[in-house]
């Protein structure tokens, strides 16, 4: 009997262990009627926004070089003279009539004195011819001189007068040449280049300076035929300079034809004075051509992935799906959606990087969102 009790002891121990394991397993299993609090707590809470239609300025992005509005080439009108003075340097502002350079005038002054003497001689000859002609006419009535002889005195007087006039014209020419040894600015401007060399004997028309007339610069933006159709004279422009500054401008002139080969036209944009732009800069900017309606979203609603833009849309069952969109203009923290969205779509405002396709989300109420702001 004692041996039988010993054999039953392991069996009893094993039965107790099985009963204990089943009890613990039953305690860990959740009740079907209890709410799934853990699942609800794990849902991502999102705020919803809808696209708005706004009137935005139409921006046409273009590139182009900054050039002088007009240039003035400063060169001598007379040649064969030596450059004796160069009075201004690059970057100087000059006024109309300012003397910029001088040519050596010694030979011209000597030529002027010589020509003045020639005029004096011609004047004396003319006065003598006048006197002879008057006396001839006085004696013609008495018959002392024939009519033919009197006519000869008259022709001599006329020839002397013409000689005097020619000498005076030559003197005027020399005086003009002397005045041209002073090379002056044709208009107000800014000295852009200086190519004159002191002591150089220059020919007529040799460039000494180049001025930016009135200091005015313009942006010559190149546009294609499609862009050209939306641009008008007096449209505003914004130009981004290489140093980060922005310059305002206005369209002054539009090329009437497109260039052969490139099929592009130039739009001439006047720039504001003293804006920091410099001739020769290459700049990117925008031409603002009126207003147009734009469907806009906050920048935070856009998710970028693999080089494309997406938004997350909320379905009626509180699940989200992604949709590719095409973006356009930007203004502040708003961005234009050109395609892929309607004003009725409900869009996740932010946090798109943490969402997954067809994931269920918890939508924050309007009151809660307002209170959290």
UniProtKB/TrEMBL annotation:
**Any single GO CC term annotated in Swiss-Prot or TrEMBL for this entry:** efflux pump complex
The protein's name: Uncharacterized protein
Q: Which residues form the Multidrug resistance protein MdtA-like C-terminal permuted SH3 domain?
A: 293-351
* GO MF assignments: efflux transmembrane transporter activity
> Which SUPFAM superfamilies does its entry note?
HlyD-like secretion proteins (SSF111369)
Q: Which Pfam families match?
A: HH_YBHG, RND-MFP_C
InterPro entries in the record:
HH_YbhG-like, MdtA-like_C, RND_pump_MFP
**The keyword Transport is annotated on this UniProt entry:** yes
């Amino acid at each position: 009997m004692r041996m039988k009790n010993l054999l039953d002891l392991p069996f009893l121990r094993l039965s107790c262990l099985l009963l204990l394991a089943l009890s613990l397993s039953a305690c860990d299993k959740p009740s079907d009627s209890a709410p799934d609090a853990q699942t609800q707590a794990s849902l991502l809470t999102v705020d919803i926004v809808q696209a708005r239609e706004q009137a935005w300025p139409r921006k046409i992005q273009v590139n182009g070089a900054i050039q002088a509005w007009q240039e003035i080439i400063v060169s001598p009108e007379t040649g064969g003279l030596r450059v004796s003075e160069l009075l201004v340097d690059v970057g100087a502002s000059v006024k109309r009539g300012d003397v910029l350079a001088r040519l050596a005038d010694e030979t011209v002054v000597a030529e002027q004195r010589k020509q003045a003497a020639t005029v004096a001689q011609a004047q004396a000859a003319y006065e003598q011819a006048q006197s002879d002609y008057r006396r001839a006419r006085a004696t013609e009535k008495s018959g002392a001189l024939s009519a033919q002889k009197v006519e000869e005195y008259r022709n001599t007087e006329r020839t002397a007068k013409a000689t005097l006039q020619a000498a005076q014209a030559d003197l005027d020419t020399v005086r003009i040449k002397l005045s041209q040894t002073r090379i002056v600015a044709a208009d107000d401007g800014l000295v852009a280049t200086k190519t004159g060399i002191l002591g150089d004997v220059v020919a007529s028309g040799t460039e000494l300076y180049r001025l930016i007339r009135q200091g005015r610069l313009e942006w010559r933006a190149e546009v294609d035929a499609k862009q050209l159709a939306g641009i008008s004279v007096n449209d505003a422009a914004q130009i981004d300079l290489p140093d980060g500054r922005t310059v305002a401008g206005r369209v002054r002139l539009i090329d009437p034809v497109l260039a052969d080969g490139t099929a592009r036209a130039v739009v001439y944009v006047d720039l504001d004075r003293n804006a920091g732009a410099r001739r020769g800069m290459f700049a990117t900017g925008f031409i603002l051509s009126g207003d147009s309606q734009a469907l806009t979203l906050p920048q935070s609603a856009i998710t970028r992935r693999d080089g494309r833009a997406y938004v997350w849309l909320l379905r009626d069952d509180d699940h989200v799906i992604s949709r590719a969109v095409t973006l356009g203009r930007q203004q502040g923290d708003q961005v234009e959606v050109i395609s892929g969205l309607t004003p009725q779509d409900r869009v996740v405002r932010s946090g798109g990087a943490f969402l997954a396709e067809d994931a269920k989300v918890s939508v924050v109420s309007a009151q809660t969102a307002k209170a959290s702001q």
